[in-house]
Amino acid sequence: MADMRNIVILTGAGISAESGIDTFRDAGGLWEQHKVEDVATPEAFERDPDLVLRFYDMRREAIQAKQPNAAHEALAKLDAAWDGELLIVTQNVDDLHERAGASRVLHMHGTHLNAWCTACDMRTKWTGPMLDRPACPECGERALRPDVVWFGEMPYEMDRIYASLRKADLFVSIGTSGAVYPAAGFVQEAREMRVRTLELNLEASMGSRWFHESRHGPATQLVPQWVDEMLGG
Ligand code: APR
């Protein structure tokens, strides 16, 4: 991989699994404990806002008690050392990449630690609960929602992601099942653009067959190994 200069890295719930954050589709995952259509759609929020806000309050609190693991730390090390272009596109709504020290991070599905005021569109860091309908610090309306992308909503910054993919030499997918588009389609887009593709995942994912190379194992082992290869260590 010596001739690789521009890298796009896609991360999913699997990279945070060893930090103790449940994935969505593994056995016992979040979507086995809760129905997507009850807690993660705009319609659910309209129908039963208390249920949705309670679910996100619980997750926001849980995430803040978790710590980045060796995989987040290895990506942060790569981010700091890499001279070429690098973008970590995460589907995760936790902030473990940032807490590990990575700075070139894009949250395509939003973040738990942001509130979005649906009255004035202000977005702000938010670590406390929302169930009690706090007032928006900007306009005073009680119209805050979690700044996360629900099913049926448009992921963030797609133009920037595709622009980075077009310039990439390497696309790496880490800890994602390949079940949710558009992220699941990045590997095919990358291949059409003649970008080398590598998957690091616990086991074969739904998209494994699209990758030039697929390595299986826990992220805390595979990611530091791969980063050492990239940095020539
Ligand atoms: N190391 C590496 N991979 C792991 C680990 C681990 N320790 N543990 C689990 N995995 C893998 C699983 O094998 C699975 O392929 O991580 C993947 C997790 O898949 P999902 O639970 O489907 O999570 P993700 O792909 O991030 O989901 C995408 O779905 O509901 C939405 O918005 C939510 O962003 C999320 C999107």
TrEMBL record:
Report what the protein is called: NAD-dependent protein deacylase
In which residues is NAD(+) bound?
Answer: 12-31, 91-94, 175-177, 201-203, 219
Question: Which CDD domains does the record associate with it?
Answer: SIRT5_Af1_CobB
What's this chain's function?
NAD-dependent lysine deacetylase and desuccinylase that specifically removes acetyl and succinyl groups on target proteins. Modulates the activities of several proteins which are inactive in their acylated form.
Q: Where is the Deacetylase sirtuin-type domain?
A: 1-233
The residues the record assigns to binding substrate are: Y56, R59
Co-factor binding details: Binds 1 zinc ion per subunit.
Domain remarks: 2 residues (Tyr-56 and Arg-59) present in a large hydrophobic pocket are probably involved in substrate specificity. They are important for desuccinylation activity, but dispensable for deacetylation activity.
Q: Which InterPro entries match?
A: DHS-like_NAD/FAD-binding_dom, NAD-dep_sirtuin_deacylases, Sirtuin, Sirtuin_cat_small_dom_sf, Sirtuin_class_III, Ssirtuin_cat_dom
The gene that this protein is the product of is cobB
Residues crossing the lipid bilayer are none
The Swiss-Prot or TrEMBL record lists the needed cofactor(s) as: Zn(2+)
Q: Where does Zn(2+) bind?
A: C117, C120, C136, C139
Q: Which reaction does it catalyse?
A: N(6)-acetyl-L-lysyl-[protein] + NAD(+) + H2O = 2''-O-acetyl-ADP-D-ribose + nicotinamide + L-lysyl-[protein]; N(6)-succinyl-L-lysyl-[protein] + NAD(+) + H2O = 2''-O-succinyl-ADP-D-ribose + nicotinamide + L-lysyl-[protein]
Q: Which organism is it from?
A: Qipengyuania citrea
Q: Where is the active site?
A: H109 (proton acceptor)
Q: According to the lineage, what is the superkingdom? A: Bacteria
